[in-house]
Amino acid sequence: MADAAPPASSPAPGSTPRDFIREIIEDDQRSGKHAGRVTTRFPPEPNGYLHIGHAKSICLNFGVALEYHGTCNLRFDDTNPLKEDVEYVESIQADVRWLGFDWEDRIFYASDYFGKLYEFGETLIRTGKAFVCDLSAEEVKKTRGTLTEPGKNSPFRDRSAEESLDLFRRMRAGEFPDGSRTLRAKIDMASPNINLRDPALFRIRKATHHRTGDAWCLYPMYDYAHAISDWIEEITHSLCTLEFEDHRPLYDWCLEALDLPNRPRQIEFARLNLTYTLLSKRKLLHLVTGGHVRGWDDPRMPTIAGLRRRGFTPEAIRDFCDRIGLAKRDSVVDVALLEHCLREDLNRRAPRFMGVLDPLRVVITNFPAGSVEELTAVNNPEDAAAGTRKVPFSREILIERDDFRDVPPPKYHRLSPGQEVRLRWGYIIRCEEVVKDPATGAIVELRATYDPATRGGDAPGRKVKGTIHWVSAAQALPAEVRLYDRLFVRSDPDEMEGVKDFLSNLNPDSLVVKTGCRVEPALAEKRPLEFFQLERIGYFTVDPDATTGGLVLNRSVSLRDTWARIEKKSREGA
Ligand code: ATP
Ligand code: MG
Questions:
Q1: 291: alpha, beta or left, given left = phi > 0 and alpha = psi -120 to 50?
Q2: HEC readout, 239-272
Q3: Ligand 1 nearest-atom number relative to CA 44
Q4: Nearest atom in ligand 1 to 58's CA
Q5: Which ligand is the nearest neighbour of the Cα of 238?
Q6: Catalytic residue selected from 106, 157, 159, 271
Q7: Catalytic status, residue 281
Q8: pLDDT average per 10 residues of sequence, the chain (574 residues)
Q9: Distances, alpha carbon 44 to alpha carbons 47, 50, 76, 293, 541, in Å
Q10: Where are the beta strands (DSSP E) in 379-476?
């Protein structure tokens, strides 16, 4: 399952860096900062599954480390025991690995640093840079001020370091209830940046942690834990998304207040937003717990696990992350680009097969009953090395119901009464008779003749415009086929004429299940996550739901490339 690691091509000397982050790194290398070393980290909080937005951050952090001969750590930012779980820790590791990245032995947990973080808390108290505050969360909120008004100093701000130290130790020992006290940084209640108005560094949470159990009831806050964890791991460039820009002064304050040498630098980039897609773990969790999807790995989910089950490849996701680039301002990427990257990858690599979603029986009346011929089919026209395979042909075949019209509209090049059509890799057939149910008038079967001189698609002396896919009825395998569409009907699922409820934007047709489909026998050996094309229908993979009863196929993406059309239009417009 693990794919080859992505290419780690270093930038050519003298070339222009690809983006502003690589520009900063190259400047630092020239000036000799951190002796030219590059160390990054990917710091997920294990409170949900990773999504395609995280893939952007993973590709960036591991990518720059590879390019500049540095290293990237995997660090679990596990400072909130109430929302975190080992299931998430495990899924995150599987997903990063599947994307093709390797942290070697550098897997870390913020919870490993709880001891050090606590010690540094004592140091800050001793040096007069932090104090224990007895205000409740409600009171802290009331005295914090607003964007236009300064906050008020806590009445506990000037208590002695000895008293704070004693209280801090007793907080750690579990003497006080949740929410009764915090350790707060002593910075500036009048700062225009609210993050600097004596922010909490530690809070009391009597909860069992998935790694440290009940060893701690005192938990560090994100900004403090993040800065110190970066420093402990000797991170050089701490890459995060724009919402942390206003937190950077606090990040820097933590490192300065402790007088730590060789400080990491936090750099922010725009997070990925995608049309028709929600990228918030909280909302994705809501979809899972509310039963709106089948789980975190539902193929409609934008999670890495969902995309994988849908049939996305790591190559396509990495290519996508490459193409969207890095910016300092938020924007929204068209989800059609993600689908386009998958089509491009699979067009090159996916072997082709035939399958019929909505079968209509065709009896070839001049083909001998009981006899089976083997036709030769090309596996991948884009890749000569993929070779050929045998496809059985017999007297009874199945075609797509939609490839026949009793009364054909103008320019209909598929099958209709008296007309000819080419069977892919096979013969030209002519429809001679339409058999209908006398009661309902529904078409139950076609009778056709084939021309033995047209084997393999030759059409001596005539024009046959249409080519359709088919399977031989006796040898075909039954399959359930799941067709997916966007999970939301609106390109911004969070917005709906004032109603802020993404659930009302769910697409009722995001999953269409087709049963009674038939596919060619060569697909019997396909396993989950293997990819292939069903000609004219799309790219597919086998769903792990498949039991001995029959194949279950997920359509990863259809063949119609809306992104290529968008690009063409914008070229024509230019
Ligand atoms: P969410 O908003 O989905 O809950 P998060 O930011 O809380 O995500 P973390 O586990 O903290 O999730 O994220 C780990 C890393 O991934 C962080 O550095 C974060 O900046 C980055 N990240 C999260 N979402 C995106 C996104 N949409 N685009 C790019 N990077 C992202
Ligand atoms: Mg976060």
A1: left
A2: EEEHHHHHHHHHHHHHHHHCCCCCCCEEEEECCC
A3: 10
A4: 16
A5: 1
A6: 271
A7: yes
A8: 54 84 97 97 97 98 97 97 94 98 98 98 98 97 96 98 98 98 98 98 97 97 98 98 97 98 97 96 95 97 98 98 95 96 97 98 97 97 96 98 95 95 97 97 97 88 92 97 96 72 93 97 94 98 82 95 77 74
A9: 8, 8, 5, 23, 29
A10: 388-393, 396-400, 420-423, 428-436, 443-451, 467-468, 470-472
Residue type for position 408 = P
Q: Whose CA is nearest to atom 27 of ligand 1?
A: 53
Instruction: Give the residue from 397, 391, 519 showing the smallest Cα distance to 447.
Output: 397
CB hemisphere CA count around 16 (13 angstroms): 3
pTM (2 decimals)?
0.94
Nearest to 238 by CA among 269, 194, 270, 271: 269
108, 73 in Cβ contact below 8 A? yes
Q: Which of 26, 33, 37, 45 is catalytic?
A: 45
Judging by DSSP bridges, how do beta strands 71-76 and 107-109 pair with one another?
Answer: parallel
Task: Dig out the tokens for 14 from the structure.
Answer: 């003298």
For a mutational test of ligand 1's pocket, the pick from 21, 45, 54, 247, i.e. the residue with the most ligand atoms closer than 8 A to its C-beta, is: 54
Q: How far apart are CA 463 and CA 460, in angstroms?
A: 8
User: What is the 56 CA–ligand 1 centroid distance (Å)?
Assistant: 9
